[in-house]
C-alpha cells in the first residue's frame, strides 16, 4: 500500500502497524470509523483486508485531503470527514471504531509545529470526552480498538468503565525486553460481560533488530511512504 504523507506534518510510525495487527484479531466488518485518521493508514489497511464500510474523520484539512488521495491511489472506498470528532454530528452508528489518538500529555515538551501539536497532544482530544463520544457512536456489541500511552492506563480504565465499555483485550508493547512498556493496545465492547484477556507482550526490538513478530507484522501491512507537500 502506497501512502502519501505531509512532509512537515505527523508521520505514522510503528504504533500504527502494531495497532493494525491488533485490530485484525477481531475480524472487523460492517460500518467502521477511524478517528483522527491522519493519512488514512489504519482505516485503509482495514478496508484492504476486511469487509468494512470505511469512514475517516480528521480535524486537519491536509490530513483529510491526503487520506482521500490515499484511498484513491490504492483503489479503496473511504468517506473522509474534515471536522472535530468531538463536535461533529454523525448520522449513523458504527460496528467498529478504531483510533491512534493523540496521547502525549501536558508534562511532555510540546512541538512548535501546529500540525504536529494537534496530532500528538491529548489536549486536543481529552481521554474522558473521547471515550464518552465513542460510546455514543457504537452499536450494541460494537467494538472499540485503540492504542494509548501505557502510563495512562489507570485513567483509560476508569473512563472506559464510566462509559460502560467493557475491556475484553489488553496488550502491552515494549521497545525492548529491558524497558518499561510505552504503549498499550485495548479492545473494548458495548454490552460485554467477558473477562479481560491480557495478551502476551509485543516486543519491538532485540539487540538492535526488529523481533520476528514485528518483522511479520511489517510483512503483513506492506506500506510504502511517499513524502508530499500540501501545507
Give a verbal description of the structure.
With 231 residues, this protein is of the alpha/beta class. The two termini are 23 Å apart. The protein is 31% helix and 32% strand. The chain is built from 7 helices and 13 strands. Strands 2, 3, 4, 5, 6, 7, 8, 9 and 10 form a 9-stranded mixed sheet that branches. The model is unreliable at 116-121 (pLDDT under 50). Helix 1 (14-24) runs parallel beside helix 2 and helix 1 crosses helix 7 (212-221).
Summarize the topology.
Elements: E1 2-6, H1 14-24, E2 30-35, H2 41-49, E3 52-58, H3 61-73, E4 78-82, E5 94-99, H4 114-120, H5 127-137, E6 138-149, H6 153-162, E7 165-174, E8 181-190, E9 197-198, E10 202-203, E11 205-206, E12 209-210, H7 212-221, E13 224-228
Parallel strand pairs: 1-13, 2-3, 2-5, 3-4, 5-6, 7-9, 7-10
Antiparallel strand pairs: 6-8, 7-8, 11-12
Protein traits:
single chain, about 230 residues, alpha/beta, 9-stranded mixed sheet, two-stranded parallel sheet, 7 helices, 13 strands, globular
Amino acid at each position: 500500500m502506497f501512502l502519501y504523507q505531509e512532509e512537515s506534518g505527523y508521520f505514522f510510525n510503528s504504533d500504527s502497524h502494531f495497532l493494525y495487527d491488533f485490530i485484525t484479531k477481531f475480524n472487523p466488518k460492517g460500518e467502521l470509523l477511524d478517528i483522527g485518521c491522519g493519512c488514512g493508514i489504519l482505516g485503509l489497511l482495514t478496508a484492504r483486508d476486511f469487509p468494512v464500510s470505511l469512514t475517516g474523520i480528521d480535524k486537519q484539512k491536509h490530513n483529510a485531503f491526503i487520506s482521500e488521495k490515499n484511498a484513491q491511489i490504492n483503489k479503496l472506498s473511504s468517506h473522509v470527514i474534515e471536522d472535530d470528532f468531538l463536535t461533529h454530528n454523525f448520522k449513523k452508528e458504527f460496528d467498529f471504531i478504531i483510533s491512534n489518538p493523540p496521547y502525549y500529555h501536558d508534562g511532555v515538551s510540546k512541538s512548535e509545529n501546529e500540525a504536529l501539536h494537534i496530532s500528538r497532544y491529548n489536549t486536543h482530544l481529552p481521554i474522558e470526552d473521547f471515550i464518552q463520544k465513542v460510546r455514543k457512536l457504537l452499536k450494541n456489541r460494537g467494538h472499540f480498538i485503540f492504542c494509548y500511552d501505557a502510563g495512562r492506563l489507570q485513567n483509560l480504565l476508569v473512563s472506559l468503565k464510566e462509559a460502560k465499555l467493557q475491556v475484553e483485550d489488553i496488550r502491552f508493547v515494549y521497545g525492548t525486553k529491558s524497558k518499561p512498556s510505552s504503549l498499550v493496545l485495548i479492545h473494548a465492547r458495548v454490552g460485554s460481560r467477558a473477562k479481560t484477556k491480557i495478551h502476551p507482550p509485543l516486543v519491538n526490538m532485540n539487540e538492535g533488530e526488529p523481533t520476528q513478530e514485528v518483522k511479520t507484522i511489517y510483512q503483513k501491512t506492506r506500506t510504502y511512504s511517499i513524502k508530499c507537500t500540501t501545507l
